[in-house]
Write a structure and sequence with these properties.
Layout lengths: L5 H32 L12 H20 L10 H12 L10 H19 L2
Length: 122
């Protein structure tokens, strides 16, 4: 008898592929940030732009995957500019009220994962 159902195996595979893709995307975005920000606070320069919003959509998933995998994609030694950007972005007055904390996102994903486990390991 298989340990995981086919559905659970598909979910695990998708998460693994996502993990690999996110690692590659972070490396690419590091270069993008350095080029497009021209040393200023955001991808668009002095203000939040489309690239900032697009990359911010990945912040939550990246942080959750880091928590669950115990691996870091955004690290001070590899991506210092992205860490500084993330701090600035999360602290921006237009973003702060709407950006959940890493703890809030992680707790939500833990609850979703528990439901998935209960559905697949009865």
């Amino acid at each position: 008898m298989p340990i995981f159902t086919l559905q659970a195996e598909k979910v695990i595979c998708r998460h693994f592929l996502l993990l690999v893709r996110l690692g590659l995307d972070v490396a690419r975005n590091k270069e993008t940030f350095q080029k497009s920000s021209k040393g200023l606070g955001f991808f668009g320069g002095e203000t939040i732009g489309y690239l900032d919003i697009a990359f911010a959509a990945l912040l939550g998933p990246i942080c959750v995957i880091e928590v669950f995998s115990l691996d870091k994609f955004v690290r001070q030694d590899i991506t210092p500019g992205l860490i500084q950007w993330a701090v600035r972005f999360r602290a921006h007055e237009a973003v702060k009220p709407y950006m959940p904390t890493v703890e809030e996102i992680t707790e939500s994903r833990k609850q979703q994962f528990e439901v998935l486990l209960k559905q697949n390991f009865k």
